[in-house]
């Protein structure tokens, strides 16, 4: 049996050497491919086209893809394994803008641009052709600031009390610059062909990257810099490309609501929707929007790291070895592990699934108390969940649920009945909708909950393609945005306590 096979990704020509039989989901997720339904084979967004070589068809493929797509060689990456050398075209890297019925203007033109999602944990960048709208290359990396703490407040503390501000700024700018340089090299283009680099990120990443004062982010009223986009040049950042290349960091919405959520508004189309919808970017800092084309309310709430596996006894990121999906089986758990093999830990989506199953099987009371005397659940030996782990999840989900309720109240409860709820971010991609509803993370039926993918990157790409040489004008959207600080809302504490409990059934 062959030990390794080669996967070539088009159109950027990147080659990957992977173990024979490796799951394409595990492999491609590390290279910027998204799996909005968490790899359950029910959204079709991870489809890949076989250009050379072959993939084995499965029942899931034929159920989700049309006869025409199957005949053209399309497969679902989440349901495929690398058995032989294969060359693949990634469907989601084709332009989503040209096929969108948005009222944004996208006029094909000569030139290239780069869209960057600058996250606290990971960074993703795409090189985009302005003529076709296609993605020519993709680069991903971990945020190197993590050496100073996994969460943003640890990094702010390192900057203000540890004297690491200059190093934090240098690391962040250098890492994004490296991604930009790698994209240019991978596509074999000249950096002077770049029209613009557009970056979206949360408030803290915005302030660090732009060299703004972060001490305003540690105390109420969290006075952030929201007055328009920040414009720099590649030369100002020391990047290895043409120094005159414009670099634009898109504006924050206020408080701890960054340009990543502004891009989410653009990607979902909230600013042009007649009916309201909800957008939640789930992470250590949960950012929430409720709005439509007339009015947009936004807020943020400290959810903690539980959704990303942080603060959990055997928690880990959604990487190989993590339990990412749990179902009920014979009055117990049936766990799925990323990459197969023995479970090493559990990520956020697996934790939510396990708690939902435990509630349904009567192993867990609505109060959050474990029925077992051992005060732990074995999900997939040796991976267990403790009483303290469940409490961490309760704290996280209560913060998000209470924030959504506050915004819905202020927008108008009657208008928010049965509206779609979009979940963005890495955790939002993979969490099961039914499980999110079951634990009360989102007060909505599973049918109303929709995975939205990386809306930060998509919104940045829309802005990049639609803005021309001067960049996208967000003023009309910002004029409709109202930031709602939860700390000043007298109802938040009461709602937070109420939302600690899991729904009874």
N- and C-termini, Cα separation: 50 Å
What is the CATH superfamily classification of the domain at 112-264? Domain of unknown function (DUF4445)
Helix content: 25-40%
- Which blocks of ≥5 consecutive residues have pLDDT under 50? 96-104
**How many distinct helices?**
15
> What is the radius of gyration computed over CA atoms, rounded to a whole number of angstroms?
22 Å
Strand content: 15-25%
- Going by helix content, strand content and strand pairing, the class is alpha/beta
Please outline the major beta sheet. Answer: 6 strands, mixed
Mean pLDDT: 86
Strand element count: 24
- Strand order, main sheet: write it out: 10-9-8-11-13-12
CATH architecture of the domain at 112-264: 2-Layer Sandwich
Question: CATH class of the domain at 112-264, please?
Answer: Alpha Beta
Shape: globular
CATH fold topology of the domain at 112-264: Nucleotidyltransferase, domain 5
Protein model, in words:
The strands form six sheets. This protein has a six-stranded mixed beta sheet with strand order 10-9-8-11-13-12, with helices on both faces. The protein has a six-stranded mixed beta sheet with strand order 23-22-14-15-16-24, sandwiched between helices. Strand 8 and strand 9 form a beta hairpin. Helix content is 29%, strand content 25%. Helix 5 packs across helix 6 and helix 10 packs across helix 15. By secondary structure, the chain is α/β, with parallel strands linked by helices. Among the domains are: 90 residues, Beta-grasp domain (Ubiquitin-like (UB roll)); 153 residues, Domain of unknown function (DUF4445) (Nucleotidyltransferase, domain 5); 74 residues, no CATH class.
